[in-house]
Amino acid sequence: MRKLYLLLLLPVFVFSCIEDDEDLNRERIRGSWVNETEYENQTLESTFIFQPNGTFENISKRIQGNGDFQTGILSVSTGNYSFEDGELILRTNTISNAEEWENPPATSEELIESDNVSSIPDKAEISFEENNSVMILLFYQCNDTHTGGFSNCAPPTPMRYDKI
To answer: What tens digit of pLDDT does each residue of 142-152 get?
Structure first.
């Protein structure tokens, strides 16, 4: 009888641990996170803002540019986030982009809203380091909808976001 009781409690324990892990990730992810990437002619900054209500905003800016590349806001996207099996799921609802990549606007009001929003969610492996002040995202899925012979997908690379 005791073994039967333990077997009945095992699924409850397993599912409560999964739920607790997802609740912990929700708590950890809330707030603003920034990733800065330097290239030869420019420095790009990506900021994720995760709200407690399950929505996010992602702002991409060029914060330093040389030659033909001017500073400004490149894109803003909004959507919903959730966790499934310990992975971060991003479902984008709106995307606004700079009309000119080389000379982006200074404010998001000058961006052009895209009518080409993919319904495929982005999935990322998520981990936290340095006492939860660093978030590592690994987007490993290819959501390229191009039907030609070549894919536009890059190999997955972990992206470091610092809490701000």
So the answer is: 655 444 555 55
30-87 tens-digit pLDDT: 999 999 999 998 999 999 999 999 999 999 999 999 988 999 999 999 999 999 998 9
- Under 8 Å between Cβ of 93 and 78: yes
Across 146-161, b (16+ Cβ under 10 Å) vs e yields: eeeeeeeeeeeeebeb
Q: Is the pTM of this model over 0.70?
A: yes
Number of structural domains found in the chain: 1
> Residue 6 is which amino acid?
L
User: How far, CA to CA in Å, does 44 sit from each of 27, 59, 62, 104, 108?
Assistant: 27, 10, 4, 12, 16
What CATH number is attached to the domain comprising 78?
A: 2.40.128
Q: What Å distances lie between residue 121 and 11, 69, 87, 158, CA to CA?
A: 29, 30, 12, 18
In whole angstroms, give the CA distance from residue 23 to residue 163: 18
Q: Which domain holds residue 120?
A: 2-163
